[in-house]
Amino acid sequence: RIGTAALAVQVVGSNWPKPHYTLLVTGLCRFQILQLLKEKPYPVAEVQQLDRLEQFTNGHKSEEELGELSEQFYKYAVQLVEMLDMSVPAVAKLRRLLDNLPREALPDILTSIIRTSNQEKLQILDAVRLEERFKMTIPLLVRQIEGLKLLQKTRKSKQDDDKRVVAIRPSRRISHGSITEDEEEEEDHDDVVMLEKKIRTSSMSEQALKVCLKEIKRLKKMPQSMPEYALTRNYLELMVELPWNKSTKDRLEIRAARIVLDNDHYAMEKLKKRVLEYLAVRQLKNNLKGPILCFVGPPGVGKTSVGRSIAKTLGREFHRIALGGVCDQSDIRGHRRTYVGSMPGRIINGLKTVGVNNPVFLLDEVDKLAKSLQGDPAAALLEVLDPEQNHSFTDHYLNVAFDLSQVLFIATANTTATIPPALLDRMEVIQVPGYTQEEKIEIAHRHLIPKQLELHGLTPQQIQIPQVTTLGIITRYTREAGVRALDRKLGAICRAVAVKVAEGQHKEAKPDRAELGEGEDCKEHITEDAKPESISDTADLALPPEMPILIDFHALKDILGPPMYDMEVSERLNQPGVAIGLAWTPLGGEIMFVEASRMDGEGQLTLTGQLGDVMKESAHLAISWLRSNAKRYRLTNASGSFDLLDNTDIHLHFPAGAVTKDGPSAGVTIVTCLASLFSGRLVCSDVAMTGEITLRGLVLPVGGIKDKVLAAHRAGLKRVILPQRNEKDLEEIAAPVRQELSFVLASCLDEVLNAAFDGGFAVKASLEHLNSKL
Ligand code: ADP
User: Fold this and answer.
1) 510 versus 118: which is more confidently predicted?
2) Which of 202, 665, 676, 679 is catalytic?
3) Which of 56, 276, 294, 327 has the highest count of CB atoms within 10 angstroms of its CB?
4) Quick check: 479 and 565 in contact, CB under 8 A?
């Protein structure tokens, strides 16, 4: 019940990789516990100070005896210290301490330094009387001196080891219970030996082996409390774990690959064809230095899942590295080991995770790499992707080369516009366009619905989703190029049905029990929890829902709420000054409204809707062209003048104002919208258009036609006005979509306006009209 009161001077340590703390304390005095007040969360007790008191009260009593004792003790202590290497500063300091400190303090200090068991230390602590303490410590000192003498005899050469035995021995750990310091140290030592063995038997490169052996040598000499110990050890463990020479065997068979790809994915013929070509070349020429495939397309069109299928067909491990938002090159290439908390980059980490050196790595979202002060991650990726360089990729953390040439890299992106050109140059871009409604229905019924049913523990006997319902979800509840939102909506339906089915099971079970089973098909739903006493509950007698639950439009409305996209198009086109354009975004094609209004003013043009410079220029071009052609088309401002901007301000707005828009392809839409405004006529409500304009009224080709046409089709429009020179792009569009839309190919703005207004907008027509008026 005796302890030492101490003052905590310093606490050092960390929680990583495992909790390890060093506590530095200064002992003050002994105390005795009088009464334990509470034990949790930490003990609190009433104590009495024991030390020092004695010194004053009965210190003088046996002075003579004590003097002798302390003198004897002092002599032994000096003898012991002088046996050590005095050139070590700590030893020299100890020697000085022996002279400077009061003799009464020496037994405590020396006991803590010399090699004693915990038991012995506690005995000294318990010895409150000074005299007793001296008497008990002297034999320990003598034992230590004898031990040292013996040691010096046997190991004369290793003098500095002796000094470690006594003086430098750090009293760093407070050992509790059964594990003593020695045991722990031995254990750690064993670990290091094991690690060394692993390093020697691993198949790492010669260069890496050299580095590892050097590091392990350092590790052996290092005290464990040093932060660097854990770092070095982690490093070595990673080096051992890395798959230097371990690989899976490729099983490449083109026919099987075709089947896997077809089974996993519906449609996307172009992509599948290119992937098969790529794999075929692999099969014929066992050389991996092919181009890196980069799938570019809107979200949810199956880019990632094709990557996964490729790994499956090759029998390789698959690992996805998400690069979105990565702005630090150390993310790719690792941190140097000099930094605290340094770690390897994602490539090396991925290799460690998969455990083989020839996985398929999917670099997801390469277009979303960012630059920052910490360097350019795209530049770091160059080294990874370049077949000429990546056989000796050097991660900063490893600091030795690792051969990445066996890794198959596939990249995905939403757009090529933001991929750094140097990176793009090393990749072969394969466009993955959005799906048509028909394709989406097929994908839903072949892949998404079965997957969702399985996820929710449902069977086709319990739920039925007819194709019209799927079409309803696609047109009224989603507006996307891919199928991700569709997948989510199907998930929501399955969840709702799962509740019904689970409730139904509960209800069915009870009547069944009561009537001992009437032989109906719900027998299988009898469950253990059906207790006869709850039958009296009238609610339970309600009929269970009929299986399968059919999802029709009413059910859709119940589960998903009112339709999100409905009739928007025709409602918005019921006044002059509105037209529908087609825009391309990284998320696929979209329809875009353009609105215009005019008011009294000084001829100013206001543009809103977060437009880029190119778009603003298109608006100015459109106005200039209309002004110069106002007479021809009989366009007038509010007061009937052909000078359209005379006393008039124009405001053009592109709704969805939070999204930045740019690009030249809105030119024709702006012209049509303004023509409608100045002529007072309505634009046809089922026409969408795209195309760049020139000052002289020509229509120039634009990009992303396939996505744009699909967007128009999704929105239920019937006619699409495209630049003449984009005719060739129409071939890429699936036949069903082409049949449902009528295309107008325009080479000049006259043709655009004629197609956009019911009954045309031709010059001649308006002149005739004028003539007849006269
Ligand atoms: P991305 O990587 O292009 O954003 P994902 O690969 O994550 O898209 O695809 C989203 C989901 O859609 C996945 O569950 C995938 O299986 C499914 N999917 C997409 N396209 C198809 C397709 N053609 N056939 C079957 N499933 C598809």
Assistant:
1) 118
2) 665
3) 294
4) yes
